[in-house]
From TrEMBL, chain A:
This is DsbE family thiol:disulfide interchange protein. It is found in: Cell envelope. Its main location: other. CDD domains: TlpA_like_DsbE. The chain crosses the membrane at residues 29-49. It comes from Roseicella aerolata. GO terms for biological process: cytochrome complex assembly. Keywords: Cytochrome c-type biogenesis, Disulfide bond, Membrane, Redox-active center, Transmembrane, Transmembrane helix. The keyword Transmembrane applies. Residues 1-23 are annotated as: Disordered. Residues 65-205 form the Thioredoxin domain. Pfam families: AhpC-TSA.
Automatic annotation (TrEMBL), chain B:
The keyword Oxidoreductase does not apply. This is Cytochrome c-type biogenesis protein. Coiled coil: none annotated. Required for the biogenesis of c-type cytochromes. Possible subunit of a heme lyase. It comes from Roseicella aerolata.
Length: 208, 160
């Protein structure tokens, strides 16, 4: 092939015309593109990992569908032997001050972790209302005897049906119902000291 | 050919029925097989919120079992599929639906396949046009006298 001495001249091309091969700067740009994508992905992953560390990002967290709504209608029987009234939706309608509804169970380890914070809230005068979720009455009673009772009212939800009406997907879960009776906040997981200071106490002040 | 098979496999994969539900406790099932089948169809649309990449039909979690029971109760009570799905959706929000609803927040999600296809087609067309412009197809008339002679020589040498 190379024997042909007189080759057809390349078609005339304007600078950067449609037919132009990529100019050196453009080629360099193309080579850098994958690096750019990798860098962006790296920054994204770093942000996610940081969020996981500080707790601001939770990939398994489920936003509650009940925020801004009134609690579902329900009426739960009291825990026998606890000497506390049962809990029903009427107790949450316009209580005149924000109240907390806490779902717990004696078989739930994170519930033990959050219990001191609930006790503290109760001491500070915040109404904490409890629901014993899928817990044998005797076990729930034992739990309160061992760790103290923060609840003003306590309903027993042995089949867990009322919990499903609340959109609960694990214990512990805590809901803040404001003075007008609307759900403003849901915390899935134990209320730690940090949760108390950074989330719950500012909310309680705002809705007081 | 191998490539074609692979492509066919990829295309067919979503059509194959999902693996049999992991949970098949006979005590949970409805007596009426038609109703049980409907309940399963509904259950496959619902995410288990405990083990989040499984439907409630596939999950062994306690909450999934409770939701399966609720779905079956409502199916046997004669409520239609949309009603049952709405019941769960009202309580658990969009996240519980394995097929996200089409609404402004999910438009981009639903449009992504179309957008990606459009982008790919545009890229292919643009590259083809550029290549066509860079090398316009030559004809025999474009050849110089020397090239034409060389071509004739090659053709002669090939044919016996």
């Amino acid at each position: 092939m190379s024997a042909a001495g007189d080759r057809r001249p390349a078609p005339a091309q304007g600078p950067g015309g449609a037919g132009a091969p990529p100019s050196p700067s453009r080629r360099r740009l193309l080579l850098l593109a994958p690096l750019g994508v990798a860098a962006a992905a790296g920054v994204g992953f770093y942000a996610m990992l940081r969020g996981l560390g500080t707790g601001s990002y939770d990939p398994k967290g489920v936003p509650s569908a009940l925020i801004g709504r009134q609690p579902p209608e329900f009426s739960l029987p009291p825990l026998e032997g606890a000497d506390l009234p049962g809990l029903s939706s009427a107790d949450l309608r316009g209580a005149g001050r924000p109240v907390l509804v806490n779902f717990f169970a004696s078989w739930c380890v994170p519930c033990v972790i959050e219990h001191p914070q609930l006790m503290r809230l109760a001491r500070e005068g915040v109404p904490v209302l409890g629901v014993a979720y899928k817990d044998k009455p005797a076990d729930a009673l034992g739990f309160l005897r061992r760790h103290g009772n923060p609840y003003r009212k306590l309903g027993v939800d042995l089949p867990g049906r009322v919990a499903i009406d609340w959109g609960l997907y694990g214990v512990p879960e805590t809901y803040l119902v404001d003075r007008e009776g609307f759900i403003r906040w849901r915390w899935a997981g134990p209320i730690t000291d940090d949760t108390l200071k950074q989330e719950l106490q500012p909310l309680l002040r705002r809705h007081a | 050919m191998k490539y074609l098979f692979f492509l066919a496999f990829l295309l067919a994969a979503p059509l194959t029925p999902p693996a049999l539900a992991a949970v098949s406790d006979p005590a949970e099932m409805l007596r009426d097989p038609a109703q049980e089948e409907r309940a399963r169809q509904i259950g496959r649309e619902l995410r288990c919120l405990v083990c989040q990449n499984q439907s409630i039909e596939d999950s062994d979690a306690e909450l999934a079992r409770d939701l399966r029971r609720i779905v079956r109760e409502q199916v046997s009570a004669g409520r239609n599929d949309a009603d049952v799905l709405r019941f769960v959706h009202d309580r658990y929000g969009d996240f519980v639906l394995l097929r996200p609803p089409v609404k402004p927040a999910t438009w981009l999600l639903w449009a992504t396949p179309v957008l990606a296809l459009g982008l790919g087609l545009t890229l292919i067309l643009a590259m083809r046009r550029r290549r066509a412009a860079a090398a316009p197809p030559g004809t025999a008339e474009d050849l110089s006298a020397a090239e034409r002679a060389r071509l004739a020589q090659l053709e002669d040498g090939r044919s016996p």
